Amino acid sequence: MNSPLKSNLERLECHFTWDLGQNRNELLKMKRNMEDVDQETCTWLVHYYNLLGYIHQALGSSTEALMNLDKAESVIQEQGTEEAGVRLQVNKANLAWVYFHLGEMEKSKEYLEEVERLQGMHPAPPGCTLHPEVSGEKGWTLMKFDLSKKHQAIDYFKMALKAQPDRKEWHKGLAMVMNMEFAQSQFTPEQIVEQLKIAHEKDPNSLLLHAHYLLKLSENTEREMQDLLERTLETGNLEGLHIILRYYSKEISYDKALQIAERVQEKFPSSVLASKLLANSYKWKVYKMEGSEEKEIFARKAIKLYEEVVRHNPYSYKAKIALASMYRYVNNMNRSDEIYQQLLSEIKDLSPERQQHIYYNYAFHLRDCRQYDESIEYHMKVAKIPSDSVDKQKSMKILQKTVEKGRSRHCEEILLILERINISD
């Protein structure tokens, strides 16, 4: 390989210069999720195509990577904003890397020279180690990956905003990542609401941002949320629909949220997202019903939709877990166990947080099957994984209660696990 060229490419610090540590299944799942995005209504197209380019390159599909990077460049040129020159730096740096991996050194060198020319025309502001366009693009990419990567995204968005405090893309990215569950303990509710407000004001066309902002306000917002729902139905942009449904289920009723989900799915019957959200609504209806004969009816409705979702996206482990839980409610424990066995057979390829989520849910499946000792063993597996997730905290509470009762043959081992966790903390 051409070492001087590679060294020069590594200095660019764009998408293809660093390993995100994703395995093939993770990348395939993300690719399928990205393909579900409606490109006509997407408000982050440049990031979308650049990220798809990265994913295809990581999967070894250089032709697809080039095609998506070309689309990103077309969008930048069409937008014709004053940032076009700096935005092309990231895009052309990625193109340089793809051609490098293809072994087309002359083309790679040409793109590298073009990037260096653009850097000379649009240098990084004083005091910035990276151009804010590079920092912000990294933030968008990292936000889509696992927990540790999302933490880094916050830093990159803040770095970009120091240099470009009015840039709406960086405000939107920071607001989205601050509002994620893992990050909420790092910020006060007021800080999150303020960042969502700023991002919404700078990008009022983002229905997703608007929905998040209204949900956080959680007061006197029903009229605004209804208006947002009508805009969603009118435009077909469903990216904020899950937030709208969360609002209605939390502030109005689960039945109202379910009615809305049915209305959306009826209007967009070919939308996998609409089907998944309606399946989720049926699932929560089942969870909330007590001893009703209708429970099985709604569980079967959810099963039909989840099966469709899983066929479309076989890498969606959350949809599979939901599907397994619904099969329990129609007394088909064999099918439920079959789904979990498949998930467990593939678990080594998943991130620590996803492994914990599967183990945690399987523990409850085993409990429902009256396999109590085996259930505790899977909560122990959750606790042993170093990553500090919500599922781990919940499993640890169950293990603590198990020790307090003192009836499990695993009590001694559980104490050792809890002690090790406390020491490491």
From TrEMBL:
User: What residue intervals traverse the membrane?
Assistant: none
One Pfam family linked to the record:
TPR_8
**Could you tell me the keywords of this UniProt record?**
Immunity, Innate immunity, Repeat, TPR repeat
Would I find Oxidoreductase among this entry's keywords?
Answer: no
| Keyword Manganese recorded | no
**GO cellular component annotations of the record:** cytosol
Task: Output the GO biological process annotations, alphabetical, semicolon-separated.
Answer: defense response to virus; innate immune response
The organism sits in which domain of life? Eukaryota
Please report which protein family the annotation says this sequence is part of.
Belongs to the IFIT family.
Extract the PANTHER family matched here.
INTERFERON-INDUCED PROTEIN WITH TETRATRICOPEPTIDE REPEATS (PTHR10271), INTERFERON-INDUCED PROTEIN WITH TETRATRICOPEPTIDE REPEATS-RELATED (PTHR10271:SF14)
Give the protein's recorded name.
Answer: Uncharacterized protein
